[in-house]
Amino acid sequence: MAAEVVTPFRPPPLVVRRNGSLGGYESALGRAGFEFVAGADEAGRGACAGPLVVAACILPSGRGGRIEGLNDSKMLSPATRERLFEIITRRAVAYSVVVIAPAEIDAYGLHVANLSGMRRAVQTLSPAPDYALTDGFPVPGLEVPSTAVWKGDATVACISAASILAKVTRDAIMVDLHDSWPQYDFARHKGYVTPVHSQALETWGPCPEHRHRYVNVRRVADRGGADA
Fold it and tell me: Domains along the chain?
């Protein structure tokens, strides 16, 4: 019996119209027959404490999906992100947010956990997407055609929307964690490496919300920190 030959999916050639709008990719895919286009992005890759948060979002086609001010969430003020978060969640055809705990990051590694989160976020969208656009790197196993877009959080509307959903959700989690672990000042730096955070690690050692795979956390833990 002859072996089945599986032809890999090749994305259709896209003509993206550069008209100043972030919706060019979605419009091009719509012209190619893909109705629901999801964008996926994460927040917290560079942090050494707190969860990794991944979001996926499908914006409506046409004017409903044109949200003024969309951009890479890191380029926006907290107030602007909060305002856009409310608009995105109200207008989106579908969105999902996946929270990946530090223990999962430690168990599988950051990138593997990130890929898993992307798959979960995209696959739990309802309605299911016809196509997915991911920020920066390809994500195998999405079960729909997909394309990775370099700096997609600043150039693709649905990825930008996902980046805002992930960032606002994660920031809120870190503010809540501050109440349990005030000595680390999570509300200020959100778990990223800063002089204040580094000094707190030296003084108190890591807590259960720190990622022990990270060199700075592991170095303190190996010296017998508070939660080592």
Answer: 24-179 (3.30.420.10)
